[in-house]
Amino acid sequence: MSSITQIVLTLGIVVLGAVAALFTYTHLHEYSHYLIGRTQTSEIEVLYKYGIIPYRVLFQQPYDLSPTRIRLAGFAPVVTGTVLTAVFALRWGVPEYGFQSIVHFVAVGTVVLSPEDLLAVFDPEEFQRQAADGFDMTQMQILRYVLQDRS
Asked: What is the pTM (predicted TM-score) of this model?
């Protein structure tokens, strides 16, 4: 196999792996929120971009959820990602390349929290208000709100 063919094949695998990882990560992340929220309300749905990529969980009746359940739903991707990372590390060790590194990337990536997730964790009552109003704050405004000094 020529070196150009190897490069093209490697790039193709990387691109396909990245797309598969993104697709899998978004599902794991959003459905972690969904499963926790669903235990307390049926007024919940996962919103999709392009019909296949979940990007947000919509709590249609956010006041049906207790503040503790909102915190748990906000933090759920951290638990999911940590458990998956531990399971994969125990199964395969620390990956160097290939399929195993893509699987680890997905597991670790699931841990990343959005500003809305942080708001749910640190101020569930404000999360309820924002969710009820359709999140009229931008992500930067949410981050500023979450990071402000509350002492």
From this structure: 0.75
User: What range defines the domain where residue 60 resides?
Assistant: 15-147
42 φ/ψ angles, rounded to the nearest 5 degrees: -100, -5
Q: How far is residue 98's CA from residue 146's CA, in Å, rounded to a whole number?
A: 38
Residue 64 CB: number of other CB atoms within 10 A? 15
CA angle 73, 78, 79 (to 5 degrees): 80
In a domain, 22, yes or no: yes
Domain total of the chain: 1
Amino acid of residue 71: R
Q: Does residue 116 form part of some domain?
A: yes
For position 107, what pLDDT does the model report?
A: 65
> Is the separation of the CB atoms in 95 and 103 below 8 Å?
yes
Residue 137 has what pLDDT? 83
CA angle 30, 28, 123 (to 5 degrees): 40
